[in-house]
Structures are given as structure tokens and as C-alpha cells.
Amino acid sequence: MPPFGAAARDLFLLQPGATFLNHGSFGATPAPVHAAQQRWRDTIETQPDVFFRETIWTATRASAARVGRQMGAPGESLVFLPNVTEAVAVVLDAIRFAPGDEIVLLDVAYAAVRKAAELTAARTGAGLRTIPTALQMTEAAYAEGLRAALTPRTRLVILDHIVSPTAQLIPVETLVPIAKAAGAKVFVDGAHALGQLPLGVAALGADWYASNAHKWLFAPRGCCLLYSAPEVADATRPVIVSHYNADPYPRRFDYVGTRDVTAYLAAADAADFVESYGLAALTAHRAGLIARADAALRERGASLVTPHAPALAAWTLPQSRPADPGDGPALMRALWSEAGIQVAASSANGRLLLRLSLQLYNDEADIDRLVAALDRLSWPGR
Fold first, then answer.
1. 3-class DSSP state of 109
2. What Å distances lie between residue 238 and 87, 89, 225, 267, 369, CA to CA?
């Protein structure tokens, strides 16, 4: 059986003696995947001409097909990009917005996504409408909020699959058909989904779906996959114009200038790594750690934000005053500098949020160290 907990730490280069409870932000690459990327780098260095003139095409498509099995989408519907941030730019560029058109997104949309939508609106004269959310939401409430935000001018709906700061799991299977029935295109920001959730991206019905492979799939950083439905593939083009921009989708994305694509190619090995553990086993391990954290944090007055993702969860911490924007960074700095514990923390609607990303290399001792540190150090406004 593959190792979990402390026994699995040897697979990673994470700083010895520290406790990492924030895998979701930037990921961590295990040794087998790191080695696979290095093999590709060595291969390229032996004969760069052959690689960039010939090998890159077949190797990229083979990796897309392998990861496509994890995403539930054909390899030919997937293209590699450095991150979801660039995928959003590609999607926004694929639609010819006009003055009066509207973009709808959640009020908790990732900041970079929101800023990209705001810039597109400013450039084109389109408007933005937001779906209001709360820290405890039902599926019916999400559906009601989306219906209220849609108008005949809605051209694009952007939905998070997992909300980054709150770790909330959004019922996209319910929301996508509502947006499509209103005549809007739909982009799902699944940055945290690949490797954490069982996915059926093609069956979901969204026009575009993007997920970072360098988070929960363990690929090297700078690796995202963008799915494009057949109906929008022709309009979906790289935001950087290169030699192959006029080629058909997906080929036009496979060689966009000379760049290090080894993270894309090692994504296939990352998919193999996750499969060697099995998503069900990973989910069970990580869910057990969330349950342990929840029990301990509830004793200290914290409340779990729901519904949350399988391996990503956030709690509101009790405070004697409303949280301010500096409370999250202050908590993160204190835990790291004084206890060697890495977490994510932020504020929302006057509440301080502690977010934990639990991974296969974490165990119950990591949770216990966090709780002891919170008791010892406290947190802003407690």
C-alpha cells in the first residue's frame, strides 16, 4: 500500500520539521513526478531541434489524453496552459462582448478572475453582475441567486467549482444547465478540482472548464488544463499569437513559442501517481483529517463553512470584533514564524477564515500541532 501521513513525507522536498496544511495554494510535487519532469528536460537538452519540431506534438497530445481520463474529457478537447488565470483570459477573449452585454460571476470569485472580468468589461462596455453568497449555502439558494442574476443580455457565466478562500463546493451540476437554458456561455473555474473531485467535465455541459494540475494532481507548477466544448473550440485561441495560431484546436495551443513545457508532459506521470493511491483512498484519508480538525476547532468556537470540498475546508474563528483584511495574513505569519505551520487565512464578511488543505503527507499529529499552536498563540481579535 502506498504510504500516507508522515511516511509519505519522504516523497516530497517539503522543509523538514515544518507542518504544511496549505497544499491547495501552490501544490507540492512528489519525487516520481519531479523525476519525470527532469527526464523530459534532459531529453530536450540532448536534441532541442527534434523535440520542438517533432516530439512536442505527440508528447503533448499523449499527456492530454492521459490526464483527460482523470477529467472525464477526451484528450483532443483539452489544451495545456500555465494556470487557470491564463485560461480565464483565453475564455474572455473568445467572446466578442459589446456594450450592454453582461458577465455574471459569484461574489466570491477568485480575485484574479474577477479582475480579468472587470478589465474585459471596461474595455468592451460590458457590465458585471454578481451572485451573492453566504458562508452557509444550500443548492437551492445558489440556483435562486443565479436565476436572479441572469438577464437576456448575459453572455457569460463564470462559476467556481470550489471557492478558493472559503473552500465551498459549488453545485455546478445544477447551475450549468440553468445558465445554458438562459442562452449564456458558461466557464467553470475548477482550479482546485482535478485530483480532489471525481470529474466528468465533458458531461457537465459547460462550454469551458479549467483546472490546475499543479494543485491536487501533483503536477509540477505551471500546469493547467482547459476543456473546450466542440461548439466553442474554433473560437478558443491562445492569447499569445504564435506560429500555429491559425491551426485547428487543440494544435494551436500545443506550441506557443519556445517555453518549458515539461510540466505539461509530466502531468501524465502525476495522473499515474494519483491513480496509484486511488482517489477514494486519498479522499478517505483527507476527510478523516478534516473531521479531526473540525472536532477540535468546534471546541474552540469555530464553525465549519459548508458545503466544503473533500480535502479543502475552512472555519470561521470566533473574534471579539469584526475581522479586518490584515487578520488573515497576521494569523498566517504567526503560525509559520512561531510554530512552523503553514495554513491559509483570510477575512470575509467580517469573519476570520482559517482554511486547511489536507494532503496524503499529513496525519493526525499535524492537526494536533495546529490546534496546540492556536491555543498557545491565539489569533487576532480572539
1. coil
2. 9, 9, 13, 20, 45
The predicted structure's pLDDT at residue 254? 98
Query: In sequence order, which ranges of the chain are alpha helices (DSSP H)?
Result: 23-26, 31-46, 48-50, 56-71, 84-94, 111-124, 139-149, 172-181, 201-204, 230-233, 251-254, 262-277, 279-299, 327-339, 364-377
Distance between CA atoms of 45 and 237, rounded to whole angstroms? 29
User: Are β-strands 341-342 and 224-228 bridged in parallel, bridged antiparallel, or unpaired?
Assistant: unpaired
As a whole number of angstroms, the distance between CA 227 and CA 382 comes to 44
Q: Are 36 and 223 in contact (CB under 8 A)?
A: no
| pLDDT over 90, % of the chain | 99
208 strand-pairing partners: 187, 228
Cis, bond preceding 248 (omega within 30 deg of 0): no
Q: Residue 183 in contact with residue 155, Cβ under 8 Å?
A: no
β-bridge mates for residue 304, sequence order: 315
Task: Assign 162 to helix, strand or coil.
Answer: strand
CA dihedral 161, 165, 168, 174 (to 10 degrees): -30
Beta-strand (E) ranges in 146-223? Answer: 154-160, 185-189, 208-212
Q: What is the DSSP letter of 258?
A: S
The Cα 357–Cα 208 span in angstroms is 26
**pLDDT (tens digit, 9 = 90+) per residue, 235-271?**
999 999 999 999 999 999 999 999 999 999 999 999 9
Alpha-carbon dihedral 156, 157, 158, 160, rounded to 10 degrees: -160
> What's the sign of the alpha-carbon dihedral 255, 257, 262, 267?
negative
In this predicted structure, what is the pLDDT of residue 348? 87
N- to C-terminal Cα separation, the chain? 43
Backbone φ, ψ for residue 205 (5° rounding): 95, 0
- In degrees and rounded to multiples of 5, residue 282 shows phi and psi of -60, -45
Residue 210 contacts residue 84 (beta carbons within 8 Å): yes
The pTM of the full predicted model, rounded to 2 decimals, is 0.96
283 phi and psi angles, rounded to 5 deg: -60, -45
